[in-house]
Description:
50% of the residues lie in helices and 8% in strands. By secondary structure, the protein is mainly alpha-helical. The chain has 2 domains: 6-74, no CATH class; 81-205, no CATH class.
Amino acid sequence: xxxxxxxxxxxxxxxxxxxxxxxxxxxxxxxxxxxxxxxxxxxxxxxxxxxxxxxxxxxxxxxxxxxxxxxxxxxxxxxxxxxxxxxxxxxxxxxxxxxxxxxxxxxxxxxxxxxxxxxxxxxxxxxxxxxxxxxxxxxxxxxxxxxxxxxxxxxxxxxxxxxxxxxxxxxxxxxxxxxxxxxxxxxxxxxxxxxxxxxxxxxxxx
Length: 206
């Protein structure tokens, strides 16, 4: 009997860690191997790091995904990995914060698959990439197929975050200069920690 593809969604020891939802054959604790969610859990959670460390110590022939996770762990200070870690923490927080709220652009009722959509585009305004006031829960159609549905986003964001915060975001975007901006590794680590702490606070309140 051939195995069935199932959605990447955390269970067991990984419960509480957000899976990507993609269909995948290979999973551990519900997290897919091919989509990288299992490796992310190993590297970015206390439970995952504990399992990774034990596996490295005791396994004579590490499985492929654990071996890859170990290699990634050695390169944890690579800028690309630090950016990814900050993004995961930031977007997880936004989705949790805006859970139950409609799409920031079109007002579509909330769905579990909502994206963390940027008001000022992250690929243009790097200084606002992880700014929580620049990101809101947004439906897939607006975020991907309508290129952010920016006009409608602009009309609604003031009510969502407050007009003062909207003005701050717009001033930061206006003053931004791409050529002078560089990510600092320590700053990215602080951003990740900041959102991880905010996630814990939200979960405590729920």
